Amino acid sequence: MKLNALNKMTENYGSTEQMPVLFLGHGNPMNAIEENEFTHGWADAGKSITRPNAIVCISAHWETAGTYVTAMDKPQTIHDFGGFPQQLFDVEYPAPGDVQLAKETKEGITQTPVGFNYDWGLDHGCWVVVSRMYPQADIPVIQLSLDYRKPAQWHFELAKELAFLRKKGVLIIGSGNMVHNLGMLNWKDDKPFDWALEANDTMKKLISKQDYTSLEKYDSLGRAVQLAVPTPEHYLPLLYTLGLKSEDENVSFFNDKTVMGSISMTSLRLG
Ligand code: ZN
């Protein structure tokens, strides 16, 4: 087969090589419709990765009692926010679901029973970022929920069980924010708080050192990190990403910037 034809095939049918894993700081839902350095960072990440066969997203915005995967053919676009322009509510991201992938994901997880969900869809933690990476909405997307009853280490361990999906050309994306304190936003001048920069830096260093035990015990990392993670839901998707890392894999950071004082957009790619 000629190389061109082979390339064409890869383009059409996606990849079965080991896929990278992403953690994306999603920030403001307006990133779905604005052009800025962060949306460009996500788009560039999409372009730099072999086209995935499907996407599994672990979003800060889907917390459940128990663990669920979305298992519908056509997930709805959930506008789970308020106080934004109508233009944002009008955005639809009609990516298909993937019932077979939901089944494989459920079967691959032994740590806990996984239920099928038929009424969620894609929340903004997922579609805001995925729509900027793959605007054509032609790659199937499913979501895996966060069991809010479980500690950080439990989530990190669960993530490891998803590693087999990477070899099936599935792109796994954790979507949250490493530093996320809505109660302390800086409305005045957007300047990052010292503690936000410190927490972002602490987390990056621990990620680079592969010190996951410390990252799991984020409550013990001092005042800056405590302020950065007042509630765990935006932080936990990071642990899903890190749980999928092989020891020798590269980590690269991008969109490493803090906005509105207390939200870091820092994102990372593994592999
Ligand atoms: Zn969010």
What does this structure look like?
- The chain has about 270 residues and is an alpha/beta fold.
- About 35% of the residues lie in helices and about 15% in strands.
- The strands form four sheets. A six-stranded mixed beta sheet has the order 6-2-8-1-12-9, with helices on both faces. A two-stranded parallel sheet has the order 3-7.
- Helix 2 packs across helix 5 (about 125-135).
- Zinc ion binds near residues 60, 61 and 125.
* Largest sheet composition: 6 strands, mixed
* Unreliable residue runs: 1-13
Mean pLDDT, to the nearest integer, reads 94
Identify the strand order in the major beta sheet.
6-2-8-1-12-9
CATH architecture: 3-Layer(aba) Sandwich
What name goes with the CATH superfamily? LigB-like
Straight-line N-to-C gap: 29 Å
CATH topology group: Protocatechuate 4,5-dioxygenase, Chain B
Number of domains: 1
Cofactors and ligands: zinc ion
Number of alpha- plus pi-helical segments: 11
| Helical coverage, percent range | 25-40%
Which descriptor suits the 3D outline? globular
Estimate what percentage of residues fall within beta strands. Answer: 15-25%
Number of strands: 12
N-to-C SSE string, H for helix and E for strand: HEHEEEHHEHEEHHEHHHHEEEE
The radius of gyration over CA amounts to: 18 Å
- Structural class computed from helices and strand pairing: alpha/beta
Provide the CATH top-level class: Alpha Beta
